[in-house]
Task: inverse folding
């Protein structure tokens, strides 16, 4: 095993970068070995240690995980953060009411006393990375089963994490790279007092809504501002009124000089997941089996939610974040299918696999070790696809913004089990209080008529698209009477009525269990969970274990097959660096997209009849007067730009850095023609979309009148 690792590491260390210059999500601590010379040739003027260092302040110290799935960056010595509006969306929504509709009107704290706390919101700093591959792989061998191997890796990872953080108050995680052929320890520091400072109205921060999502040209002011607070020692602390603004080791200077075609750009952030090295069978599964059915059900769900939101301002607030979450993946899946087909990606993978097979058969040892991998994949994927679709469909219909009352009922099963097992009274009381908190949040953003329609549509699609063996018992017993069953569930369940749920919780006793068990939504939740636990999850787990084994071996084989090339590891929500250049593209015949949009385009799209295109009057006034301050350029105000950086989900909110290390933009999206970059990068089509930082500064200063915030920043003119 150590010999295999040494061979892989050697091939990486002597690598020559033969991929397209703009492709890749690179490990920051290895930039000096692999990437910095290329970056310098592309125009970067600083050093690898300016980006990542554990000996002095560096850019990594200004980039954080924002919440659980975005990136943000520090832009002042007083803990001021900028991220995307859609990353802060949930926090903005939770502060919004009909009386104070911050989604519609925006929010701007005019002093630090007005900044709003956000319970549960955290930011996470990377303190250091360490390669622990030899220690992890030194504990496993090829005679182990996959389950035993996973257990040993988990145990050794826990030991490493505990050793790294003992007595420090820090957090640590060991993550696999190259599908388990390499491991890194990441030591992190988490801050828990993060306050909302400012956000433009949705008509700016979400301008274009779902119609423009994943599209270029884009005219969205997709940013929000937060501030990190710390204890008096500058260390993490829970929310307290007397906490002080956090003073970072590093924050980004901001350039007002703008960007131009051919300029170098770099992004530091936390890309979530990519699948660049999967076999052709994986792409075939997504394009032909999984995505089409998920797109169909999401289309129906979005139609229902959009109709509700358009009918009532309260529903619009309640379902805004849910709608955004559903539509984001829905449109991305559609773009991935289109992009993969345009790239002829499945055939490209098959051609690669043919060359790979030839290579394996040239050497008896390689043939013995890797020669059967693709045949094993071919056998595995049809079964894997079947169970994966069943799992996804259950989530879409019954849990993931599907039947919300059923989903809520599902959270009551632990309370029933505790009561039946005669758990300690204090334990039961704690569970009751936790459920009260959950229900309070749930009903704040719940509308029964919308939910009932979601349930009805989902059940109808479920019985059409799922085989009978994946029907929950309740559906089997009402087969042929789907309409009556839907009326039965929502006519009798307590879980669509907040008063009934809180009455039960306030007076909860052992006798309440029978009432819960008779509830049709609870009974359905139990049926669905039993179906998943008994028929789907065991098979899916078995298939995933087998797939994980094949993936690890196939990745090791690809590293050997591509010896002399520098292969970047798939994204896994760890800090990565990508670099590229400002560049437009041609999405289709006779269409040429420029690299930049301006406020002129916002005004061209203005439509007061459509919520997502209703430009605020104050922004129109500033436009008419050309009152752009120092943020305009040649009589126009830049809004967004595109570049060739390789990004994905999780990179939302990432800083876009110029050749001098200055902040020039905030990444927020990819162009629709290139969203398949999670699976295969197309240099002619893949473009990341970023907010021009000058538009954000203009909105803070001229539109919001919060120019005092700019005095915290270091502006490079």
Result:
């Amino acid at each position: 095993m150590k010999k295999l690792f040494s061979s892989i590491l050697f091939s990486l260390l002597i690598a020559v970068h033969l991929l397209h210059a703009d492709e890749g999500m690179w490990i920051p601590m290895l930039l000096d070995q692999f990437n910095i010379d290329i970056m310098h040739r592309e125009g970067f003027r600083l050093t690898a240690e300016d980006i990542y260092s554990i000996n002095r302040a560096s850019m990594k110290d200004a980039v954080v995980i924002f919440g659980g799935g975005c990136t943000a960056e520090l832009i002042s010595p007083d803990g001021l953060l900028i991220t995307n509006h859609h990353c802060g969306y949930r926090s903005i929504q939770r502060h919004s009411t009909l009386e104070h509709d911050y989604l519609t009107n925006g929010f701007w704290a005019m002093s630090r006393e007005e900044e709003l706390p956000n319970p549960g919101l955290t930011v996470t700093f990377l303190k250091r990375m360490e390669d622990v591959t030899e220690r992890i792989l030194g504990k496993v061998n090829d005679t182990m089963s996959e389950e035993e191997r996973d257990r040993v890796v988990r145990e050794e990872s826990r030991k490493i994490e505990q050793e790294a953080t003992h007595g420090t108050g820090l957090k640590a995680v060991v993550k696999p790279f190259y599908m388990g052929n390499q491991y890194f320890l990441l030591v992190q520091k988490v801050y828990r007092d993060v306050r909302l400072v400012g956000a433009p109205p949705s008509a700016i921060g979400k301008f274009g809504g779902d119609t423009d999502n994943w599209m270029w040209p884009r005219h969205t002011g997709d940013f929000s501002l937060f501030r990190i607070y710390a204890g008096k020692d500058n260390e993490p602390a829970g929310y307290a009124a007397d906490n002080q603004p956090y003073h970072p080791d590093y924050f980004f200077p901001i350039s007002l000089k703008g960007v131009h075609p051919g300029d170098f750009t770099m992004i530091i952030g936390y890309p979530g997941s990519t699948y660049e090295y999967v076999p052709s069978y994986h792409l075939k599964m997504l394009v032909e089996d999984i995505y089409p059915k998920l797109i169909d059900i999401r289309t129906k769900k979005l139609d229902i939610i959009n109709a509700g939101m358009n009918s009532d301002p309260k529903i619009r607030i309640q379902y805004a974040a849910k709608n955004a979450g559903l539509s984001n993946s829905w449109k991305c899946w559609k773009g991935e299918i289109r992009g993969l087909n345009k790239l002829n990606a499945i055939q490209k993978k098959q051609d690669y696999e043919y060359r790979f097979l030839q290579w394996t058969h040239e050497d008896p040892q390689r043939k013995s070790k890797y020669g059967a991998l693709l045949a094993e994949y071919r056998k595995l994927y049809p079964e894997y696809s079947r169970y994966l679709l069943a799992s996804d469909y259950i989530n879409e219909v019954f849990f993931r913004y599907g039947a919300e009352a059923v989903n809520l009922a599902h959270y009551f099963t632990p309370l029933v089990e505790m009561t039946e097992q005669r758990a300690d009274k204090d334990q039961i009381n704690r569970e009751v209080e936790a459920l009260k908190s959950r229900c309070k949040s749930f009903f704040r953003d719940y509308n029964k008529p919308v939910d009932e329609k979601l349930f009805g549509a989902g059940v109808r699609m479920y019985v059409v698209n799922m085989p009978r063996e994946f029907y929950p018992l309740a559906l089997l017993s009402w087969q042929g009477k789907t309409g009556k069953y839907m009326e039965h569930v929502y006519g009798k369940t307590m879980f669509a009525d907040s008063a009934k749920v809180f009455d039960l919780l306030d007076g909860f006793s052992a006798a309440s269990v029978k009432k819960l068990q008779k509830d049709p939504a609870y009974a359905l939740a139990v049926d669905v969970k039993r179906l998943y636990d008994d028929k789907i999850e065991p098979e899916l787990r078995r298939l995933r274990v087998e797939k994980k084994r094949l993936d690890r071996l196939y990745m090791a084989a690809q590293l050997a097959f591509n010896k002399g090339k520098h292969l970047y590891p798939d994204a896994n929500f760890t800090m990565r660096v990508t670099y590229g250049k400002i560049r437009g593209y041609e999405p289709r015949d006779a269409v040429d997209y420029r690299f930049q949009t301006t406020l002129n385009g916002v005004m061209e799209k203005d439509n007061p009849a459509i919520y997502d295109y209703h430009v605020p009057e104050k922004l129109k006034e500033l436009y008419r007067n050309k009152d752009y301050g120092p943020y305009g350029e040649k009589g126009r105000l830049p809004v967004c730009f595109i570049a060739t950086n390789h990004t994905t989900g999780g990179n939302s909110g990432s800083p876009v850095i110029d050749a001098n290390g200055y902040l020039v933009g905030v990444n927020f999206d990819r162009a629709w023609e290139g969203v398949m970059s999670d699976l295969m990068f197309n240099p002619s089509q893949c473009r990341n979309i970023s907010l021009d930082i000058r538009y954000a500064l203009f909105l803070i200063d001229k539109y919001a009148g919060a120019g005092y915030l700019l005095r915290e920043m270091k502006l490079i003119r």
Notes: The CA atoms of residues 17 and 566 lie 5 Å apart.
